[in-house]
Specification:
The strands form 3 sheets. The chain has a 7-stranded mixed β-sheet, with helices on both faces. Strands 1-2 form a two-stranded antiparallel ribbon. It has a domain of 125 residues: 3-Layer(aba) Sandwich (Rossmann fold), CATH 3.40.50.2020. Strand 6 and strand 7 form a beta hairpin. The radius of gyration is 16 Å and the shape is globular. The longest helix is centred in the N-terminal third of the chain and has 18 residues. The chain is built from 5 helices and 11 strands. It is 30% helix and 31% strand. It is found in: Cytoplasm. Keywords: Acetylation, Cytoplasm, Glycosyltransferase, Phosphoprotein, Purine salvage, Transferase. It catalyses: AMP + diphosphate = 5-phospho-alpha-D-ribose 1-diphosphate + adenine. Homodimer.
Length: 181
């Protein structure tokens, strides 16, 4: 992985102190999304990692409680030539769903996923990637396990090391492009 390509992405991440509440340092990827070269580079880096690490992936799962999973997971899945499965807020998906309650760093949420998405729970499992934020990672993994999905790796753009999200995953592999203390 090229340090220059990583730097291009890191340079486009903007820190916002005291958002969404005092004491929280939010890392905003909006400038990265506005820069087509930086965004393409981000997707290139993720695609390179997935292709080099896993020869068979059936779906990319995106945690979409705050839209980042949609924004990154969808183009990554398209590049890989595979499907995308959203994990949304409870009540945002039609049909039968499965959901789980969990605590965020600064609140509570309840993600859900459609049981009719065409994966898991049908006698087999489909390898997939998960693109979560730190606050929803464990809950989304538990939700996917309930749906009989095989999770290959939790893949994130930004790892906030102080939150220790990767340590809570037990045996699920974890990969982050950018790390901040």
């Amino acid at each position: 992985m090229s340090e220059e390509r990583l730097r291009r992405g890191r340079d486009r991440v903007r820190p916002f102190p005291d958002f969404p509440e005092p004491g929280v340092l939010f890392r905003d990827i909006s400038p990265l999304l506005k820069d087509p070269v930086a965004f393409r580079t981000l997707i290139d880096l993720l695609e390179d990692h997935v292709r080099a690490s896993f020869p068979k992936v059936d779906f990319v799962v995106g945690e979409c409680l705050d839209s980042r999973g949609f924004l990154i997971g969808t183009p990554l899945a398209q590049r890989l030539g595979i499907g995308f499965v959203p994990v949304r807020k409870k009540g945002k998906l039609p049909g039968a769903t499965e959901s789980i309650s969990y605590s965020l760093e600064y609140g509570k949420a309840r993600p859900g996923s459609s049981r009719g998405s065409g994966w898991g729970g049908q006698g087999g499992s489909n390898p997939m990637f998960l693109l979560p934020s730190t606050g929803t990672m464990c809950a989304a993994c538990e939700l996917l396990r309930r749906l009989k999905a095989e999770i290959l790796e939790c893949l994130v753009i930004i790892e906030l090391k102080a939150l220790k999200g990767s340590e809570k995953l037990n045996s699920i592999p974890f990969y982050s492009l950018l790390q901040y203390d």
